[in-house]
Design goal:
The protein is α/β, with parallel strands linked by helices. The protein has one domain: Mannitol-specific EII, Chain A, CATH 3.40.930. Helices cover about 40% and strands about 20% of the residues. It contains 5 helices and 6 strands; from the N terminus they run E-H-H-E-E-E-E-E-H-H-H. Strands 1, 2, 3, 4, 5 and 6 form a 6-stranded mixed beta sheet that branches. A hairpin with an 8-residue loop joins strand 5 and strand 6. Helix 1 packs across helix 2. About 40% of the residues are buried. The mean pLDDT is about 90.
């Protein structure tokens, strides 16, 4: 019998009403969740990769959502960590403040799955119903289910 692949997100990867007022702190908190679940082996290296990617083009989107992301050798499992901030934060200079952050972590060796996941998350984030549902999710389980449903199958 073969084992099922790990889900891309779980309640353990969701932080509701998170604090944070800068990009690095928010990304670091979510990356720590990934590390706690053994999905990232070197949090600092992964956070640095995300910050380098953010420096190229910030991922704060209209509608108050950011989707920081990176492929890195420290990532063992394609994953999405979800943060709903207690108060909107400026994620990037000149971009709208965000209150929802969806951090995508991808292993180096699977660029096609990474791009497919990024496309699905970006597509979900343009829908106001998805953003609203994440903002009003009553539990980490509910938020994880919303994200998993939006992603579907890769």
């Amino acid at each position: 019998m073969t084992s099922s692949p790990e889900p891309l997100t779980t309640a353990d990867l969701v932080v509701l009403d998170a604090s944070g007022d800068d990009t690095r702190g928010i990304v670091g908190a979510l990356a720590s969740r990934l590390a706690e679940q053994s999905r990232v082996t070197d949090t600092d290296a992964f956070v640095e990769a995300v910050m380098k990617r953010e420096a190229l083009e910030p991922t704060a989107l209209p509608g108050g959502v950011a989707i920081p992301h990176a492929r890195h050798g420290a990532v063992s499992t394609l994953s999405v960590a979800v943060g709903r901030l207690a108060a909107p934060a400026v994620f990037a200079e000149g971009k709208p403040a965000v209150d929802v952050v969806l951090l995508i972590a991808a292993p180096d060796e699977d660029p096609s799955a990474y791009l497919a996941l990024l496309a699905k998350i970006a597509g979900a984030c343009v829908r106001s119903s998805f953003r609203s549902s994440l903002r009003t999710a009553g539990s980490s389980d509910e938020a994880a289910t919303l994200v998993s449903s939006a992603i579907g199958r890769l």
